[in-house]
Design a protein that fits this description.
The chain is an all-alpha fold. The chain has one domain (2-142). Helix 4 runs antiparallel to helix 7. It is globular, with a radius of gyration of 16 Å. The longest helix is centred in the middle third of the chain and has 28 residues, at 43-70. It has helices at 2-11, 23-27, 30-34, 43-70, 73-77, 79-82, 87-96, 100-103, 109-112, 119-122, 125-128, 132-142. The chain is built from twelve helices and no strands.
């Protein structure tokens, strides 16, 4: 949750926290892939596919989310100070959105996206990690702002 990230950054100033759920969300973000100018890649169709897959499994993600969050070390140390109350409602809000910038905070491209339709992209891991878009995103995370 955005509010939790702010609290954690205040409590632990040397933390670098991803804005999205996982690292793969950066690699497979439509803007990142578009920068590669791959033949046959259609950003709009790809985005629609991500949204479609998210919407199919969002209830499963929501039902498993709380258990996953219980494993976060930051919430074990200072549970009452850092963890958001009524987190389920915020997770639902994130996943109900079809805006990638919002639902990528709660959706894992690594675990929840079926990449069988984009095998020509998954073979480009090294290139995906070298784009200007990706570099800017990671530099922003590491800048400790």
């Amino acid at each position: 949750m955005d509010s939790e990230i702010e609290k954690i950054k205040k409590a632990y100033s040397n933390y670098a926290i991803l804005e999205y759920y996982c690292f793969e969300n950066y690699l497979f973000h439509p803007d990142n892939i578009q920068e590669l100018n791959l033949i046959g890649f259609d950003k709009n169709e790809y985005t629609k596919e991500i949204i479609k897959q998210k919407n199919i499994i969002k209830n499963d993600i929501i039902s498993n989310y709380k258990n996953a969050r219980n494993s976060y070390q930051e919430f074990k140390i200072e549970l009452d100070k850092l963890r958001t109350k009524n987190e389920e409602y915020l997770i639902i809000e994130y996943l109900e959105s079809d805006d990638i910038e919002i639902f990528f905070k709660a959706f894992s491209m690594k675990d929840n996206f079926n990449k069988s339709k984009i095998t020509y992209i998954t073979s480009k891991y090294p290139e995906l990690a070298k784009t200007k878009w990706f570099r800017i995103k990671i530099e922003t995370i590491l800048s400790f702002k």
